[in-house]
Amino acid sequence: MDLKQLGYLLAVRDAGSFTKAAQGLHVAQPAVSMAIAKLEQQLDLRLFDRQDRSVRLTPEGEVLCRHAERLLLQMHQAQAEMAELKGLERGEVRIGIPYMMGSYYFPPILMAFKHRYPGLKIRVEEAGTRELLSRMVDGSLDLAILITSDLPPALEGAQLLREEMLMVVGEEHPLRGASAVSLPQFFNQELAMFRRGFYHREHMEALAQGLGIEPNIGFESNLIPLLKAVVRQGFAVTTFLRMALEEETTLSGIHFAPPIFLDLCVAWRRGDPLSMANRALRDFLLAQAKPEPTPDGALRDNNLRDNR
Q1: 292: which strand partners?
Q2: What are phi and psi of 234, to 5 degrees?
Q3: With contact defined as beta carbons under 8 Å apart, do 234 and 173 qualify?
């Protein structure tokens, strides 16, 4: 019994006749009939009831078809994995990225990855970190950029970068040019913030709660350009990661005192083997990772590790 015979078996079952199966397989009809006859002889079982111009599976044939489907599926999966090993010529990666990083950090990195592996399809999902976390746990994403301290036991990850959160003000704001701002000073302003469900928003609300302050949030949006416009016009202030201000000339970032940092990692499901394509993307991202600042001011490389 070989895989070709099992393929013919399923083709005859699906077509309902040897002639139609041979046409679908683009082989001569006698070749299909002989393969099935040989299979029946090897097993000493009748797999089909022959009726004039049609055939029907026997109970024994139905059992063998179930095994044949599993075996052929495993063969196709093995072939796909071998094709990946051949040079990542085919495949798809699915990665979730927070809005801010998707707009400012990832475009050049993903383009460089696509240049290296042009045959791979890249599917990027942008969402808040809470939603990305949920999609990782339910399996709808293979990789995601998440807050390192936020990983549940079902996920593991490797440090990607540490990014500072800054207060953001417009050109006419009284605090523009300040070297640092305290949290009470920040929360005393009218704020433009992401909506709930974004770690950025939830982190700032938790800090306010710790100080016994009710934030004055006058504007909510998940659109970064809209939040910037609100701040630029002087209606409110906000907080962004430093990367969102690198090319801004009309907005200013002010350090918090003490500074606020977010540690971000690339995460995957614990115990769930990544495909070659997803492993290639994960390793490529980590190769681009920014080293972490250590307390003594030195830089430490980011090595692949568990970050629960």
Answers
A1: 300
A2: 85, 15
A3: yes
Nearest by Cα to 168 from 100, 264, 257, 234: 234
Contact of 145 with 264, CB cutoff 8 Å: yes
Structure pTM?
A: 0.62
How many Cβ atoms from other residues are within 10 Å of residue 304's Cβ?
14
In sequence order, what are the residues at sequence separation of 6 or more whose Cβ sits closer than 8 angstroms to the Cβ of residue 127?
A: 96, 98, 99, 135
Q: What is the pLDDT of residues 31-80, one digit of tens each?
A: 999 999 999 999 999 999 988 778 899 999 999 999 999 998 888 877 76
Helical ranges in 175-242 per DSSP H: 183-187, 199-210, 224-232
Label residue 139 left, alpha or beta by phi (over 0 means left) and psi (-120 to 50 means alpha): left
Q: Where are the beta strands (DSSP E) in 130-277?
A: 143-147, 155-170, 180-181, 190-193, 216-220, 238-241, 251-269
Phi, psi for 151 (deg, rounded to 5): -70, 130
Reduce the DSSP state of residue 141 to 3 states and report it.
coil
- How far apart CA 188 and CA 206 sit, in angstroms, is 15
The enclosing H or E element of 92 equals strand 92-98
Sign, CA dihedral 10-13-14-18, equals positive
Question: Considering all CA atoms of the chain, what is the largest pairwise distance in Å, rounded to the nearest integer?
Answer: 92
Helix (H) and strand (E) counts in the chain: 11, 13
Bridge-partner residues for 256, per DSSP? 181
Q: Give pLDDT tens digits for 87-115.
A: 566 678 889 998 888 888 888 999 999 98
Structure tokens at 293: 């600042």
